[in-house]
Amino acid sequence: MVARAGESRAARTEGRVVARFNAPRAARVEADPNGRPLEVNHRAVALVREEWRVVDRWWTEDPVSRGYFELVLESGENTVVFHDGASGGWYTQRGA
Amino acid sequence: MNEFSEVERDEIAVQFIRVPDGLEHIRRAWFELEVAVALRGRHFYGAFDPVADDYRACVEVREGDRRVPGLESGTLPGGRFLRARLRGYPPGVYERIGPTFDELTKEAKPDQSRPSLEYYRRHDEIDLLLPI
Fold first, then answer.
1. Is the pLDDT of residue A23 over 80?
2. How far does B29 lie from chain A, in Å, by closest CA?
3. Rounded to an integer, what distance in angstroms lies between the CA atom of residue B24 and that of residue B26?
4. Which residues of chain B have pLDDT under 50?
5. pLDDT at residue A8, rounded to an integer
6. A20 compared with B96, residue with greater pLDDT
7. What is the tally of helices (H) and strands (E) in chain B?
8. Which of residues 38-77 of B touch A (CB under 8 A)?
9. Rg of the Cα trace of chain B?
10. How close, in Å, is residue B90 to chain A by CA atoms?
11. How distant is the Cα of A3 from the closest Cα of chain B, in angstroms?
12. A53 to chain B: nearest residue by CA?
């Protein structure tokens, strides 16, 4: 029982770390008229590597509609940003 | 007369093409999906959103799959469903989908918070899933 409780605590701690690491953060994004990012937090975008759309939970009262972009910034850094359809805001999910 | 059974299903990760409701649009969605992804060994689903009045032609995403350009990503809900299994060849079997869903809704009160699903098991076998 003790070991199991310890494992559970470790799993919860790990979960929190992972959750914090992946948590979206609000970003300042300048986009072109087609909605593709040109700047992320005042850093210029060199390349849009991939873009995709997530439309989920559409059967609930809290639907998700996000446009994702995997970017290479001019600094060479890779980042992923998304535009949230519900809030209208931009967020980064890693880097930037 | 169809036989119904209750089943419990997990949530499924899918990629999909979304089109307005209507036979012509739905046919186009399936055609485009089958062009975009390899058919063999894949599980396909159909889902209708009565609020937006649109239909999703979906393919299950498996571990290691790459995102297919042009397809949207999401999930289909799990939970308890009342299932009817249709057997027969297209296009005739498609014409039984609507009437069989009507039969299912007479058999059980649907859970309005989740969509009904079509699960294309094989080219001649479709499970119709009413959320309950």
1. yes
2. 16
3. 5
4. none
5. 46
6. B96
7. 2, 8
8. 49, 51-52, 67, 69, 72-75, 77
9. 14
10. 29
11. 30
12. B72
Spatial contact of A43 and A95, defined as CB atoms under 8 Å apart: no
Tell me, what's the pLDDT at A16? 52
Indicate the DSSP class of residue A61.
S
Residue with tokens 């994004």: A29
User: Per the CB < 8 Å rule, is B74 touching A59?
Assistant: no
pLDDT score recorded for residue B51: 80
Q: A32-72: per-residue pLDDT in tens?
A: 999 999 999 999 999 999 999 999 999 998 999 999 999 99
Of A53, A57, A60, the CB nearest to B73: A53
CA angle B42, B48, B53 (to 5 degrees): 140
Confidence (pLDDT) at B91: 85
Nearest by CB: A52 against B67, B77, B113 = B67
Strands A43-56 and B72-76, bridge-based pairing: parallel
Tracing tokens 């980042």 back to the chain, one arrives at A79
B14, B66, B75: best to mutate for the A interface, most A CBs within 10 A: B75
B79: left (phi over 0), alpha (psi -120 to 50) or beta: left
CA dihedral for A62, A63, A67, A73, sign (positive or negative) = positive
Q: What is the pLDDT of residue B78?
A: 96
For residue A27, what pLDDT is reported?
Answer: 96
**Residue A55 and residue B72: Cβ atoms within 8 Å?**
yes
Choose the closest CB to A54 out of B18, B51, B73.
B73
Give the predicted TM-score (pTM) of the model: 0.80
Amino acid at B34: E
